[in-house]
Amino acid sequence: MNYPSVYIRLFLCRGYLIAYPQHYTKGALLMNYKLVYICSPLRPILTNEPERTEELNTNIKLARDACTLAVYRGFLPVAPHLYFPQFLNDDVTAERNLGLDMGKALLRQCTQLWIISPRISGGMSAEIKEAQKCGITVLVFTAAGFRQYRGNGDTTDNCYADTFDGVMD
């Protein structure tokens, strides 16, 4: 992709120093980007209300940061858990199930799924298993970089332990 030679900004995201142009070329086609599915928890597991709110906000920030990282690595991020709660109520079972089904439909269009948390939630488990069933590459983001996930997607998995040794970065 060609960018005008304006100047480059530097961005530090989760240990990566990323350079990107100040202004993007007009009319850049989205079809040039590979889709990556961002798999991270949304629903809090803590029971104390102030802590639940803080955990929810932390989970949202984690997903946003992962989307930012994906963009600056040349991917188009797909994070339905950031988008669907804007119009579907996650606390209503029928709406949550609809959101999960629609998320899986989006997932099937992606080339990779990135797990961005050592904890696998129930929704993440379904997404990981769907990706594995469809032959989509599943990677785990760790402090050392991306690693191939070799677990089975169960909520009892520790994503950081269930990886191949080599860093995929």
Relevant terms:
alpha/beta, globular, Rossmann fold, 169 residues, single chain
Can you offer a commentary on this structure?
Helix 4 links the parallel strand 5 and strand 6 (137-142). With 169 residues, the protein is an alpha/beta fold. It is globular and about 40 Å long. It has a six-stranded mixed β-sheet with strand order 4-3-5-6-7-8, with helices on both faces. The two termini are 21 Å apart. It has one domain (30-167): Rossmann fold. The protein contains four helices and eight strands. The model is unreliable at 1-24 and 26-30 (pLDDT under 50). The relative contact order is 0.14. 33% of the residues lie in helices and 25% in strands.
Which class do the helix and strand fractions yield?
alpha/beta
CATH class: Alpha Beta
Gross morphology is globular
How many structural units, i.e. domains? 1
Number of strands: 8
Number of helices: 4
Task: Tell me the distance between the termini.
Answer: 21 Å
> In sequence order, what are the helices and strands, one letter per element?
EEEHEHHEHEEE
Helical residue percent?
Answer: 25-40%
Q: In what order do the strands lie side by side in the largest sheet? A: 4-3-5-6-7-8
Describe the secondary-structure layout.
Blueprint: E1 8-13, E2 16-21, E3 34-39, H1 49-72, E4 75-78, H2 80-83, H3 93-107, E5 112-115, H4 122-133, E6 137-142, E7 145-149, E8 163-167
Parallel strand pairs: 3-4, 3-5, 5-6
Antiparallel strand pairs: 1-2, 6-7, 7-8
Helix pairs in contact: 3-4
